[in-house]
Amino acid sequence: MKGSGKEFQFFRGKLRLIQPEEHRVSVDLVVFLSHVKGIKKSSKVADLGAGFGFLSFSVAKKFGCRVLAIERNEEAFNLLKENIRLNSLDELVTPVKLDIRKVEEGFRRGEFDAVLANPPFYPREYGVEDGGFHFEGDTGLRDFISASSYLLRDGGYLNLLLPAFRLYEAFLYMKEFNLPPRFMSVIYPTVKKEGKLCILSSVRNVPGPLRVEKPILINREEGGYTQEVESLLEGFL
User: Is residue 13 in a domain?
Assistant: First the structure.
């Protein structure tokens, strides 16, 4: 990971992270965090493909819950461990070096209350690789949803961030693995542009109507973030 030695601060310094140059935290992740479902202090949460830990740490600090940060890449895993130390989160966040396609080797079925997943956005048939950050390699969206179904108890929540063009695909996998979608939000760059990203939350083995929540606008037409996003960046933690 090139340039992984620089420290960045988030949420007015409440979170400190060393992050790689080629994979920085985006505002979309902060918006995603503000819409996660089914997490409280007593929850046991899995972060699939945790990377250097932004989602794991933010959720652990926000809710005071226990998070298992699952990552297989050696460099990302070492950075994850360093960031746990940097934020004194060793009592809440546990790093787990494991391939999500083999979660049964590390965990019992149904032992988690919630799962976070921010899979690579672009499917492997696009034919481009960038180390697994944005383009799938040997692990795809179906693998993330399958692993989530295995890890979650009945009634547990999957929280998934994915591009809008993969919604239909995600719905098919969710049906296959007993994860009916229950909440959806669409993220728009501006009011005049089409939706690019979606936040999906499903509840394992609990079917019901899909609630489409109000749209999320990232930027104002005249420039700069919207007030909603500014408030999240300042006050999520």
Answer: no
Q: Are 33 and 231 in contact (CB under 8 A)?
A: no
At CB < 8 A and 24+ separation, what contacts does 19-25 make? 19/52, 19/54, 19/79, 20/52, 20/75, 20/76, 20/79, 22/130, 22/131, 22/133, 23/51, 23/52, 23/131, 23/133, 25/54
CATH of the domain at 185: 3.40.50.150
Domain total in the chain: 1
Contact indicator for 215, 186 with CB cutoff of 8 Å: yes
Contact 148, 48 (CB under 8 A): yes
| pLDDT tens for the chain, residues 1 to 237 | 444 568 889 998 899 999 877 677 889 999 999 999 999 999 999 999 999 999 999 999 999 999 999 999 999 999 999 999 999 999 999 999 999 999 999 999 999 999 999 998 878 766 555 455 677 888 999 999 999 999 999 999 999 999 999 999 999 999 999 999 999 999 999 999 999 999 999 999 999 999 999 999 999 999 999 999 999 998 898
Q: Is residue 66, in this structure, part of any structural domain at all?
A: yes
Distance CA 177, CA 173 (A): 6
Backbone angles phi, psi at 159, to 5 degrees: -115, 120
